[in-house]
């Protein structure tokens, strides 16, 4: 996709809508009939989240921070301690961002004489156990990284064939989360390589979140829910609009396979890393919330801008992601040039519906969705709450201007993404 002119950039909005009259649920828009595992209608949750491994984790998508997107291999014990401190001081920890996750490059390049993984002494002079103790003292959790191959992606020792030793090592350090990558895999099927680490983690007796990073190559949504708490459905995200939107589309295919206990993972957040505009980042954060994606911050939270903090700390947007019903919102239909006018929707707890209108064209446009497409009668009247302005809208105008990248709700002229809640009356 071509670089979008700043002229078209606009905000990303979320709305809460309350239905003022009784609404009868109709059949879903025909667009869903072509999906891998279509649901009967957008309020039907019977096909969602039936896989999960039942280790008590991931009742909602995980939230936290990961070092890779900003720091890559330039990591240190100091960075992780300061990041833990920043999650507390900014209030992000209270909002649910409680994982502090180490990514690749943390270990020495070879195992020790006993075949054990060893932290890089220059990066982590106090060791991983001491870092875990520090993070735990803040009320947070520490994550670590390994690989279902002979090496990690940055050619540090992988865990293939060492699953039991490495899992026991992680547990002894007090690790709470494992991201398990897919490099140097000897062409062994992922369905064979990833389960042994699940078994090894369980054998430690410590409850550890298991995040599979298989890149979506062998459709992990079809099998990973039996062994992991989340699974990557895509390749790595890049800090630009085209990458983010493409990944959202790929992740959408697997919406019906996510649910409490196990989530589709379209990769970490790029918000605040500088490759997109403020409005595009709001769209990025909003659509990740709608899709029930893990919310793992990927910027330097020690030095982030006020705008970045505003985006990732919006409690009402986070509530979309952390809704206890746990149903991933999905694309209902698309139209216009190359399908760039899109409507996404999904049910929430409390008889609510979340809807996103996403203008992915490069100019202002009117996006319209009729009630039937959402399973509602045409006579349904709604009230609206704007989750980015954090205020209620007394009347909902079904036609509003939309700019590129904006996130908002029903019938809107904008670009980007918009989300609304519809409150259905209890019968």
Automatic annotation (TrEMBL):
PANTHER family: ALPHA-GALACTOSIDASE MEL1, ALPHA-GALACTOSIDASE/ALPHA-N-ACETYLGALACTOSAMINIDASE. The chain crosses the membrane at residues 6-27. Keywords: Disulfide bond, Glycosidase, Hydrolase, Membrane, Signal, Transmembrane, Transmembrane helix. Belongs to the glycosyl hydrolase 27 family. InterPro entries: Aldolase_TIM, GH, Glyco_hydro_27, Glyco_hydro_27/36_CS, Glyco_hydro_b, Melibiase_C. This is Alpha-galactosidase. SUPFAM superfamilies: (Trans)glycosidases, Glycosyl hydrolase domain. It holds the Pfam family Melibiase_C. GO terms for biological process: carbohydrate metabolic process. It comes from Olea europaea subsp. europaea. It comes from the Eukaryota. Residues 338-389 form the Alpha galactosidase C-terminal domain. It catalyses: Hydrolysis of terminal, non-reducing alpha-D-galactose residues in alpha-D-galactosides, including galactose oligosaccharides, galactomannans and galactolipids.
């Amino acid at each position: 996709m071509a670089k979008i002119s700043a002229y078209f950039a606009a905000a990303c909005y979320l709305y809460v809508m309350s239905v003022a009259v009784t609404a009868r649920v109709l059949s879903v828009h025909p667009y869903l009939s072509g999906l891998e595992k279509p649901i009967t209608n957008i309020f039907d949750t019977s096909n969602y989240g039936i896989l999960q491994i039942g280790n008590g984790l991931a009742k909602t998508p995980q939230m936290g921070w990961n070092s890779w997107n900003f720091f890559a291999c330039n990591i240190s014990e100091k960075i992780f301690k300061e990041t833990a401190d920043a999650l507390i001081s900014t209030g992000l920890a209270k909002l649910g961002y409680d994982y502090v996750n180490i990514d690749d490059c943390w270990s020495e390049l070879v195992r020790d004489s006993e075949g054990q993984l060893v932290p890089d002494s220059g990066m982590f002079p106090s060791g991983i156990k001491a870092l875990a103790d520090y993070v735990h003292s803040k009320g947070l959790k520490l994550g670590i990284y390994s690989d279902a191959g002979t090496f990690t992606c940055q050619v540090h020792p992988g865990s293939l064939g060492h699953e039991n030793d490495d899992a026991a090592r992680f547990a002894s350090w007090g690790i709470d989360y494992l991201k398990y990558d897919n490099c140097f895999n000897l062409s062994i099927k992922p369905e064979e390589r990833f389960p042994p680490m699940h078994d090894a983690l369980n054998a430690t007796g410590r409850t550890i979140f298991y995040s599979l990073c298989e890149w979506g190559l062998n459709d992990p949504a079809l099998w990973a829910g039996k062994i992991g708490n989340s699974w990557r459905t895509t390749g790595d995200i890049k800090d630009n609009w085209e990458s983010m939107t493409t990944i959202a589309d790929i992740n959408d295919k697997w919406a019906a396979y996510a649910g409490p206990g196990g989530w589709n993972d379209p990769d970490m957040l790029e918000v605040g890393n500088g490759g997109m505009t403020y409005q595009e980042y709001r769209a990025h954060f909003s659509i990740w919330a709608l899709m029930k994606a893990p919310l793992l911050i990927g910027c330097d939270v020690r030095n982030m801008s006020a705008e970045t903090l505003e985006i990732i700390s919006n409690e009402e947007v986070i509530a979309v992601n952390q809704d206890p019903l746990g149903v991933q919102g999905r694309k209902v239909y698309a139209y216009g040039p190359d399908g760039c006018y899109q409507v996404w929707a999904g049910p929430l707890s409390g008889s609510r519906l979340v809807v996103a209108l996403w203008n992915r064209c490069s100019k202002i446009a009117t996006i319209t969705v009729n009630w039937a497409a959402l399973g509602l009668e045409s006579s349904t009247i709604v009230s609206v709450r704007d989750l980015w302005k954090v205020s209620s809208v007394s009347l909902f105008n079904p036609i509003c201007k939309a700019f590129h990248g904006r996130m908002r709700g029903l019938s809107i002229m904008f670009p980007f993404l918009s989300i609304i809640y519809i409150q259905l009356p209890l019968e």
